[in-house]
């Protein structure tokens, strides 16, 4: 077999193995090492490249952000700040048709600015928001669809684990990626709210529901008491990064310490909860860093096989422009989104397309935002849609089937696709504030 054939076969093998249920980092590492062995007929070389991959990836100082932001997000979730911000948002939207859905989007956007996790958002708001929407007569599909759609904000609005993973693969600044994620995240939030308003006008029967009378207007003092801790945490973390006072690692450490202090003052922190947060942080961190190591050896294998260069030659021979390349790229991500999770998609396709984007003089930060948004659509599409599975498991309600969750999420996946097209067409939306 030629190097190109080995490279192609390895990519297909990785996708098949992951789809069959093999742990993603194991699939990436195992197939990549085997491919390097076949390419160079040298098993010792493949082992040496694995050692280099470890030293060049997880030993990097930048990746200290992973456990710090993970711990901060878990502490915030356990301190009940998600339900507090939801109550405030619901008070503001209580007289609007679909207001509870809009409040869910707004609360998810604020919550995402601290947790950085779609899964955490899906779990929290499935328990907080869906029962309220059902109580006021909203259709089950709309209720779960709003939570599923807005949960993806956790992976776009910084701090985001997916932005950190991309920053490693593309060798970009974590701080720049966080900056670039702000406007797209807010844009998607506004698009979701507009879509809910549109549904209320055009398809009221599908939405169902009535305006909320339970939530009264809150006084400024009540709003400050419920939102103050979370807003102050956001200011400390993101403000520190954006003003240049702190590096992402320092901001993560400050946020983790401040979040822990808030949880203690709110009397939400016990030794048991603290220990559970530490253990869960360890599990999540180990999984992410294992992914990063596997991605490093995979990228080296692709370079040895010459697959990215061959792909660049094919596209150049066919005189494909940037929009054609991006169309192919987005279609590939949407297809893989039906099979793989977000991290897998980023780790598999980004190393293939980076050599095509760099010569065109395009911003790799912009490309990263497009990548994360495109890959996140997969969280809402069957059969894998992780957010949808999390919502179903969190609800434990026999009245709502997994099909209802996927069908409810479909309109919001379409909204994401529209926003993705806008981000591709107007890169300034992502990189304008850099």
UniProtKB/TrEMBL annotation:
Entry membrane topology: Multi-pass membrane protein
* Domain annotation TRAP C4-dicarboxylate transport system permease DctM subunit: ranges: 11-427
Cellular component per GO, a single term: plasma membrane
The cross-references to Pfam families, in alphabetical order and at most eight, read: DctM (PF06808)
Q: Where in the cell is it found?
A: Cell inner membrane
The molecular function GO annotations come to: transmembrane transporter activity
Q: Which InterPro entries match?
A: DctM, TRAP_DctM
Membrane-spanning regions, if any?
6-39, 60-80, 100-130, 142-166, 178-202, 248-265, 277-301, 321-354, 361-385, 405-424
* Assigned keywords, A-Z: Cell inner membrane, Cell membrane, Membrane, Transmembrane, Transmembrane helix, Transport
Family assignment from sequence similarity: Belongs to the TRAP transporter large permease family.
Annotated function? Part of the tripartite ATP-independent periplasmic (TRAP) transport system.
Q: How does it assemble?
A: The complex comprises the extracytoplasmic solute receptor protein and the two transmembrane proteins.
The identity of this protein, by name, is TRAP transporter large permease protein
Recorded source organism is Alginatibacterium sediminis
């Amino acid at each position: 077999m030629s190097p190109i054939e080995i490279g192609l076969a390895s990519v297909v093998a990785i996708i098949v193995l992951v789809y069959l249920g093999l742990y993603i980092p194991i699939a990436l590492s195992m197939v990549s090492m085997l491919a390097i062995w076949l390419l160079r007929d040298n098993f010792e070389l493949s082992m040496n490249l694995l050692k280099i991959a470890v030293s060049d990836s997880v030993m990097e100082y930048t990746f200290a952000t992973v456990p710090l932001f993970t711990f901060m997000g878990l502490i915030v979730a356990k301190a009940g700040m998600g339900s507090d911000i939801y109550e405030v948002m619901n008070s503001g939207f209580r007289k609007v048709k679909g207001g509870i859905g809009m409040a869910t989007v707004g609360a998810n956007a604020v919550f995402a600015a601290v947790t950085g996790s779609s899964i955490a958002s899906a779990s929290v708001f499935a328990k907080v928001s869906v029962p309220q929407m059902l109580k006021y007569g909203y259709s089950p599909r709309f209720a779960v669809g709003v939570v599923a759609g807005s949960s993806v904000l956790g992976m776009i609005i910084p701090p985001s684990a997916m932005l950190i993973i991309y920053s490693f693969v593309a060798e970009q600044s974590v701080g720049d990626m966080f900056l670039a994620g702000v406007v797209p995240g807010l844009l998607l939030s506004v698009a979701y709210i507009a879509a809910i308003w549109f549904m209320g006008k055009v398809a009221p029967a599908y939405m169902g529901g009535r305006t909320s009378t339970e939530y009264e207007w809150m006084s400024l003092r009540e709003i400050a008491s419920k939102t103050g801790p979370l807003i102050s945490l956001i200011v400390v973390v993101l403000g520190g990064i954006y003003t240049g006072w702190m590096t992402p690692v320092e901001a993560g450490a400050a946020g983790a310490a401040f979040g822990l202090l808030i949880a203690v003052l709110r009397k939400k922190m016990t030794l048991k909860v603290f220990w559970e947060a530490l253990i869960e942080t360890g599990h999540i961190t180990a999984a992410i860093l294992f992914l990063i190591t596997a991605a490093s050896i995979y990228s080296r294998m692709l370079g040895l096989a010459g697959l990215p260069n061959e792909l660049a030659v094919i596209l150049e021979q066919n005189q494909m422009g940037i929009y054609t390349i991006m169309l192919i790229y987005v279609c590939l991500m949407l297809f893989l989104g039906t099979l793989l999770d977000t991290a897998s998609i980023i780790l598999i396709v980004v190393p293939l397309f980076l050599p095509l984007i760099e010569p065109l003089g395009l911003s790799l930060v912009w490309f990263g935002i497009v990548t994360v948004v495109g890959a996140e659509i997969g969280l809402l599409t069957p059969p894998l849609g992780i957010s949808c599975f999390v919502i179903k498991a969190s609800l434990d309600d026999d009245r709502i089937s997994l099909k209802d969750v996927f069908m409810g999420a479909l309109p919001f996946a379409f909204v994401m696709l529209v926003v993705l097209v806008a981000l591709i067409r107007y890169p300034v939306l992502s990189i304008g504030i850099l």
